[in-house]
Amino acid sequence: MALTNCKECKKEVSTEAKTCPYCGIDNPGVIDNYNRVVGSVVLALLVFLCIYIFTRHGSEDYQNNENAGISENKGIDVAKVDQEANATRSSSEQHKPVEAPAEAASTPSQQSLVKTMQRAPVNLEQTKQVELEPDKTKNISSADTPQMMVMHMLEYALNDGGLSHESEIQQTKLQIEGLPGPAKGNKKAARAINAKGLASSKNGDFNTAVKMFEEANKLDKSDIEIVNNLGFSYLKQGNLDLAQKAITKALTLSPDRAAAWENLGEVFGVKGDVSRAAACFSNAYRFSKDRLKMHHYMKKLYEKDDVKTLKQARAKAINWAEKSYLNVSTFQQR
């Protein structure tokens, strides 16, 4: 007969006692038996779980080892195929003076291997040179300002008056014309002051003319005639940098204004830049509505020019026009 503790008073009683002799409670040892049964079940479950985890871990290790063995065998097989392909290629090179086209590989592995061997090596230095070489055919960058675009038109005309870059000059002209211009101002009031400036300019009073044109330009910055008159007055005043800036501004408003190109040519000529001056004069020919009239005007100014470099530039443009430009049917007056 086994003893246990009473579930109520905790004193020793028989496991088979129906009542506790001390406190009188029924079945005093049942709860302990129940706990033992529950504990036994939990212990059995824990043992089973440990066995399951151990056997599963061992199975995974076995599968990993088996996979590693398969990968290793595949590597050995590929190496063998590589050696056989190299041996076959060496044998064919020794017996055939001219390289024959490779036969189709019989297996996917051999096909992949043959493609890898036939791939041409990449020349990194050549690739770097190609990436670093500028694209000479690209269009004017959208980041260029209108003034920069005008300078592009000038640069295109530096070589043979721009005959070999006619399309580029015309394309840049269209790009400039497509840009938004300054807002229109009080044109009537601006033109009234512009008339006073022209009168002062005609009398040789370019200091007063500059003041008049500056005031007129403030009233209407969109008026190209006022801006061009201001640039010409700066030129006659001897302020070449302001003259270049104002005339270039005029060309951003109207890139095909022949008078503005002629004035810009005079600025570069006085500055001593014969090449750019001649390029500007060639653009004056290009955009003139009456090229014969422009030609006579150029020759007349040449006779009056007293600055050596300006005279050289104008002579260069006149000679170019007579020998090539005016005689080319494509560029005849429309």
Structure write-up:
There is one protein chain. With 334 residues, this protein is mostly helical. The chain folds into two domains: 3-82; 146-331, Serine Threonine Protein Phosphatase 5, Tetratricopeptide repeat. The protein has helices at residues 30-95, 108-118, 124-132, 146-156, 166-177, 187-202, 206-219, 224-237, 240-253, 258-271, 274-287, 291-304, 308-325; strands at 3-5, 12-14. The protein has a two-stranded antiparallel sheet with strand order 1-2. The termini are far apart. Mean pLDDT is 76; it is low at 64-81, 87-140 and 329-334.
Annotate the secondary structure layout.
Blueprint: E1 3-5, E2 12-14, H1 30-95, H2 108-118, H3 124-132, H4 146-156, H5 166-177, H6 187-202, H7 206-219, H8 224-237, H9 240-253, H10 258-271, H11 274-287, H12 291-304, H13 308-325
Antiparallel strand pairs: 1-2
Largest sheet: 2 strands, antiparallel
Helix run count: 13
- N-to-C series of helices and strands: EEHHHHHHHHHHHHH
Amino- and carboxy-terminal Cα gap: 134 Å
Number of domains: 2
CATH H-level superfamily title of the largest domain: Tetratricopeptide repeat domain
What's the Cα radius of gyration? Answer: 49 Å
Strand order of the largest sheet: 1-2
What is the β-strand count?
A: 2
SSE class: mainly alpha
* Helix amount: 55-70%
Give the CATH class of the largest domain. Mainly Alpha
Mean pLDDT across every amino acid position: 76
CATH topology of the largest domain: Serine Threonine Protein Phosphatase 5, Tetratricopeptide repeat
Describe the global form.
rod-shaped
The CATH architecture classification of the largest domain is Alpha Horseshoe
What ranges have pLDDT less than 50 throughout 5 or more consecutive residues? 64-81, 87-140, 329-334
Q: Into which percentage range does the β-strand content fall?
A: under 5%
